[in-house]
Write a structure and sequence with these properties.
Layout: E1 3-9, H1 16-28, E2 33-41, E3 44-51, H2 61-77, E4 83-89, H3 90-93, E5 99-102, H4 104-108, H5 113-121, H6 124-136, H7 141-150, H8 158-166, H9 173-182, E6 186-194, H10 195-205, E7 209-218, E8 221-227, H11 233-246, E9 254-258, H12 264-269, E10 272-276, H13 280-285, E11 288-290, H14 297-301
């Protein structure tokens, strides 16, 4: 399947030497460049190289996939400082309607909500350590969530509003959502965090779908438990498939963005899995990386 190679420069124009290095890597792996153009976005520059020979005659799907994997690995290994690269399938870039699904904590927003809540309970240090381990993939997410939420038991429900007021969107998040939706695409969020925080944020941004865990509340206080099934990595992948189907958008036109191990399944299920300032284990398997604060780099990747 033909694809587009994008080189994203962090806040500066890509130099001729960087572009030449990229062309060399492509050529060494048997790819030709059919066309090339530059794009300017707020805070970053992009070079888009249309590949002309992604699927050589006679290559099987498995051979083409293996070849693409080798190319991606070579691009990472020969990467230039402050430049991120990605090979984006045309099934996403050229789709009339695209589907974008994002993690929330440390992706759509800058903070980890459970740590903000834990600060009110005096357990922020403990919770932060567990969160970090869970995002690295060292702990089972559901188990770690129950452990962390238990430390919140007894907090008054009023802390939810206080924490909600402290939420800061990631740079470029509003532009990403607004521009994608204005162009007719579907944007949603799925979180291992909490619906009491995500719901008002989703309404404010106009997200098409949103799902997170429900904190149990009894007599105006958090019980230290969550209600219902935990939104874990498997659940996130399920929502990608369900919501994209409901939207009438094929999986081949989907993009998933996340930063932690809990996002790996949905990133693998999407046509393009994007690691956003992610943990090393997530960056290692992602189709694309965004290693600057600008979440709206995703617009360039998806050709929006």
């Amino acid at each position: 399947m033909p694809s587009t190679f994008t080189a994203v420069s962090y806040g500066q124009t890509l130099s001729p030497s960087v572009l030449e290095n990229i062309r060399t890597v492509l050529s060494e792996h048997g790819y030709t460049v059919a066309s090339e153009r530059a794009e300017s976005h707020p805070g970053f520059e992009v070079a888009v190289l249309e590949l002309g020979s992604l699927d050589p005659s006679g290559a099987s799907d498995a051979q083409a996939a293996a070849r693409l994997a080798r190319l991606r690995k070579a691009l990472v290994e020969t990467g230039t400082e402050n430049v991120s690269t990605a090979v984006v399938p045309d099934s996403l870039r050229n789709a009339k309607r695209k589907f974008i699904i994002m993690d929330v904590d440390s992706t759509l927003i800058q903070q980890e909500v459970i740590e903000l809540l834990a600060a009110h309970a005096g357990t922020e240090t403990e919770v932060a350590k567990v969160t970090e381990a869970a995002m690295r993939g060292d702990l089972d997410f559901a188990e770690s969530l129950h452990h962390r939420v238990a430390t919140l038991g007894g907090l008054p429900v009023s802390v939810l509003a206080e924490v909600g007021e402290k939420i800061k969107l990631s740079e470029g998040a509003e532009r990403l959502v607004a521009q994608a939706k204005a162009a007719g695409h579907v944007v949603c969020a799925v979180s291992g965090g909490f619906s009491q925080i995500l719901a008002p944020l989703a309404e404010r941004l106009g997200l098409d779908f949103a799902l997170a865990n429900d904190l149990e509340i009894v007599n105006g206080h958090l019980t230290g438990k969550v209600s219902g099934a935990v939104v874990d990595r498997a659940a996130k992948a399920v929502q990608l498939r369900e919501w994209s189907a409901l939207s009438g958008i094929p999986v081949k036109a989907t993009m998933a963005i996340g930063d932690g191990a809990n996002d790996l399944d949905m990133m693998a299920a999407a046509a393009l899995g994007v690691a956003f300032n992610a943990k090393p284990a997530v960056r290692a398997v992602a189709d694309a990386q965004i290693n600057i604060p600008n979440l709206d780099v995703a617009l360039a990747l998806a050709n929006i």
